[in-house]
Task: structure prediction
Amino acid sequence: MTLQQLKYVITVAEAGTVTEAADKLYISQPSLTNAIRELEKEMNIQIFNRTNKGISLSKEGEDFLGYARQVLEQAAILEDKYKGSDGGKKSFCVSTQHYSFAVNAFVDLVKEYGQEEYDFSLRETQTYEIIEDVARMRSEIGILFQNDFNETVIQKILKSHDLEFHPLFVAKPHVFISRKHPLANRELIKNEELAPYPYLSFEQGEHNSFYFSEEIFSALERKKNIRVRDRATLFNLLIGLNGYTVCSGVIDKKLNGEDIIAVPLAEESNMRIGYIVHRRGKLSRLGNSYLEALAKYMKER
Result:
């Protein structure tokens, strides 16, 4: 077993296909396939399930991947200490709902660990994709919210994928609106007062169920609905159309500008925002550092 073989396994697991992984590793697909088969034979396990539809991690493979990440992480630490190098190209990926604090923590991570070579990914994406990313080891950490409405469904899916949820903080529902919105001077807004205005939410693709919505009270019937894919578009529409969205109330003026404000919503509920990880996985040094950065922003709320 070599460190290179472990890197191959991790790259294939993250890419989802041998073809894409081979392109990233700059080797031929047959060479990559043979290297992984030799490792499986040596370790007497089947790391990947192979079907006509492609490959996926086996249960044994999920365990093996967790250990492989730890071995590579320790090897990088040794290189840091004894070779005077930065341990080679560092890689890290986090998938998240659209939260400014997740972006801020990612920026801190890159500033701390982004040396001459690195390969970091921040995926602001749909809720179900966050779960799939962590389940398939494409992302080490996923960030999403639960509440009384979606918790049963989300927890069932997490359990089926052998994932676990760790709370970060509890947020009361707020309305995000433009500073020039007719309701901007209110200290508290009621749902019925929002009826004349467009409701903005993040599209959830084929899993467009209320249970996967990023917005609390997603099941409420609204006359005017607009769905978007990214945060910049949503904020532009908040300003241009006097639209609104309902979320955690955590907003970063440096990141999102001065034109958007958060006003408390007069509804008794809460959002339990947290992160998900693989149950049998071990967090890398970068993963732990990212969580430490998140914790810093939680204190500043």
